[in-house]
């Protein structure tokens, strides 16, 4: 599987947890942005760590929402 993260820009409070966990995938300035790809487990872990629940993870093959 290949997970793709999506950021809800209105929900993001720029805490930076996603960048701390997956710095090759996320960058946080005023809000988080997706800057690359990474292992599925790190993408999922970063999404689960977001205190604002601003990250949705989708399986790129099936289109299924993996998280939340």
From TrEMBL:
Q: Does the keyword Electron transport apply?
A: yes
Keywords of this protein's UniProt record, alphabetized? Electron transport, Iron, Iron-sulfur, Metal-binding, Transport
MF terms (GO), sorted A to Z: electron transfer activity; iron ion binding; iron-sulfur cluster binding
Instruction: Give the function comment from the record.
Output: Ferredoxins are iron-sulfur proteins that transfer electrons in a wide variety of metabolic reactions.
What is the protein's name according to its record?
A: Ferredoxin
């Amino acid at each position: 599987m290949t997970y793709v993260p999506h950021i809800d820009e209105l929900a993001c409070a720029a805490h930076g947890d996603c960048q701390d966990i997956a710095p090759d995938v996320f960058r946080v300035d005023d809000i988080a942005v997706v800057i690359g790809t990474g292992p599925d487990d790190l993408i999922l872990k970063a999404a689960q760590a977001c205190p604002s629940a601003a990250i949705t993870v989708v399986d790129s093959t099936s289109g299924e929402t993996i998280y939340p």
